[in-house]
Amino acid sequence: MFADRAKVYLKAGKGGDGHVSFRREMYVPNGGPDGGDGGKGGDVIFVVDPGLNTLTDFRHVTKYKAEDGQEGGKKNCHGANGKDVILKVPAGTVIKDFETGKVLLDMSNKTEPVVFLKGGRGGKGNRHYVTSVMQAPKYAQPGQPAKELWVTLELKCIADAGLVGFPNVGKSTFLSRVTNAKPKIANYHFTTLNPNLGVVDLGQNNGFVIADIPGIIEGASEGVGLGFEFLRHIERTKVLIHMVDAASTEGRDPIADIEAINKELMTYNEELAKRPQVIAANKCDVLYGDDYETVITLLKEEFEPKGIKVFPISAVSGKGLNELLWHVNTLVKEAPEDVIEFEAEMDIDFMDMPELPFEVKKSDENERVFLVEGPRIERMLGYTNLESEKGFAFFQKFLKDNGILDMLEELGIEEGDTVKLYGLEFDYYK
């Protein structure tokens, strides 16, 4: 079975503890401290493997833990670092927080390994704590705790064009005729339960990758049927091909079908409905005379004024396929080249910060100066590079998500007032 989703537990390695020991040698009765530092814990690393196309491996093994760093030793010996755990995933894999469903990492455009969970820092040995008044410290720093969380791995197909339509309109037949894919074909609803990928080769460096998305039904965007399982594979496509049964062999209205599918796409993700679209009016080989002209004319009058071209085709006989494929090829070439990548919605380094306190107040010295302080603020500033665009964007989101902006307004802040976060100062503007 095609595996495109998996729930797994990930844990980085704990940092090794610093060591407490003292130099003991003949003729050196009062040797100083020589406790070594603990080793760093292993990282959890994701890497794209071009040879993989499913998440099957994660169905069988669901827990992955990096090795802990070893404790430091005497004679200033540094503890060994823990071994990393490397997880190979197919291109297009998105890692989400299991509890919230928010995106943590998208591996679509990653050509190098990505450290997902950093191992804990090793603790310092007692030799670091010698002072003028404390010559023999009997304590050392413990290793940093390990980070751990449950995540959901989702595989979102990377294809240029997505083939969508209600069940049994001929998508699998179309795909088998125009690509090298060999989907199972039968006259039953939802025969296709897996997304199929195929390559359309038009020659002379022309062509594109197409994904047959299993039949969408009304309510799919709310999870009806297998809605979510299907819809997520459309999210990366550049062009959408709507296939409809123009002959209404099952009594369906092709115009209503297209509108229903667009409604589901809009509800699931507004960006999907904005993608370039084309309509493949299939099964035209069973339409004759006035019926053919009437159906095709109605489709063109309804959708071509909206910029959506209609192509009458027959997936069985091959009629009209060449014109359709070349038009889609043009739309794909005109679309941005980069694979659509999902921005991270959470930063793992800050996921445990909500438990830390903070305070927002007016300065005692100047009522137009406001102070934002506390352990949560200190930790955020320690992890954030405000010089980078991404870091500053995270800083602004942090202020909003934690209610700090609302607290400032409740205290009466006005435009031009100063906000201080320890050594940083900002002018406030809405």
Question: Mind sketching the topology for me?
Answer:
Elements (H helix, E strand, L loop, with lengths): L4 E7 L32 E5 L8 H4 L2 E3 L19 E5 L3 E5 L5 E4 L7 E4 L30 E8 L5 E4 L6 H8 L17 E8 L2 E7 L14 H5 L7 E7 L8 H15 L1 H4 L3 E6 L6 H15 L5 E4 L8 H14 L24 E4 L6 E5 L1 H9 L5 H13 L2 H7 L7 E4 L2 E4 L3
Parallel strand pairs: 1-3, 2-4, 9-11, 9-12, 12-13, 13-14, 16-17
Antiparallel strand pairs: 1-8, 2-7, 5-6, 5-8, 10-11, 15-16, 17-18
From the spread of the alpha carbons, the general shape counts as: elongated
Oligomer designation: single chain
Sheet with the most strands, sense and barrel status: 6 strands, mixed
Helix content class: 10-25%
- Following the backbone from N to C, one meets helices and strands in this order, namely EEHEEEEEEEHEEHEHHEHEHEEHHHEE
Number of helices: 10
Mean pLDDT: 80
Q: Identify low-pLDDT runs.
A: 183-193, 218-228
Would you tell me the structural class of the helices and strands?
alpha/beta
The largest beta-sheet arranges its strands as: 10-11-9-12-13-14
**Rg from alpha-carbon coordinates:** 30 Å
Strand content: 15-25%
Q: Tell me the span between the first and last alpha carbons.
A: 52 Å
> Got a strand count?
18
Q: Can you give keywords for this protein?
A:
430 residues, 22% helix, elongated
Question: What does this protein structure show overall?
Answer:
Helix content is 22%, strand content 22%. By secondary structure, it is α/β, with parallel strands linked by helices. The strands form four sheets. It has a six-stranded mixed beta sheet with strand order 10-11-9-12-13-14, with helices on both faces. A hairpin with a 5-residue loop joins strand 5 (93-97) and strand 6. The radius of gyration is 30 Å and the shape is elongated. The chain starts with a strand and ends with a strand.
